Amino acid sequence: MSNIPSITLNDGAQIPQLGFGVWQVPDNEATPAVRAALQAGYRSIDTAAIYENEDGTGLAIREALAGGLAREDLYVTTKLWNSGTRDWSGEQGRDAVLREFDASLAKLGLEYINLYLIHWPRPMHGSYLNVWKALEQLKADGRVRSIGVSNFGQEQLTRLLDEAEVVPVLNQVELHPYFPQKELRAFHTRHGIATEAWSPLGQGRELLAEPALVKTAEKHGRTVAQVVLRWHLQNGVIAIPKSVTPSRIRENLNVTGFELDAEDLAVIAEIATGKRIGPDPQEFDWN
After folding, report:
1. pLDDT (tens digit, 9 = 90+) per residue, 118-137?
2. Catalytic: 51?
């Protein structure tokens, strides 16, 4: 078991601050990867309908549960894809969301999901409030313990805060030292919304070769990935790194035996570019 801290969400549920993501992991590779993650001590698994690996992810989870892992000790997240977020209203929109959810739940083979997210806001359609109301129903029915969003901006979050009954527990967004999202994180804090980072390692591109990070890693006798994940934890951010290599899966979990000091944090702050790796959520509209 790892000693990763947890964050208490605004509905009282707790989520491990470091989880395991399976974006871009083929379905047949998801099973051994998630199996390795659970064996290493991860207790939070993040997938999505569009990843097309809920079957493989679910198989590894069910194996672990059959082997004695308690369901209440495991946090499972999946996401509603854009095919369920068309500009529908009323029962038609609700039923579309419920069909998408049922499909994800069946693939995972679980009785409930800990966290269900709207994957993209698609603000040009304006349908996310109706979609959110369907998620509120899933929560009320107990099929989802918590509900949240992904890639939402302040404008969309403000609308939910003003018009919805349930405040999202978190917003999962692109976030890493190159793109630290300080303004959005501050907004989240003001409204009791947790921040979760996708691509917390910047997809392993230039970020892991960044000289300032390499120097900081050498200072602490750690890898650059461990330094970056430690940076997330110290900033109160939930991170979900991805790997299919067992040694790196274990390595990414080993981030609690050291602490970045004020000098380290200042150095890391200097490398921010404000540039995204992924698409701009305000423009992204892919089915």
Report:
1. 999 999 888 899 999 999 99
2. yes
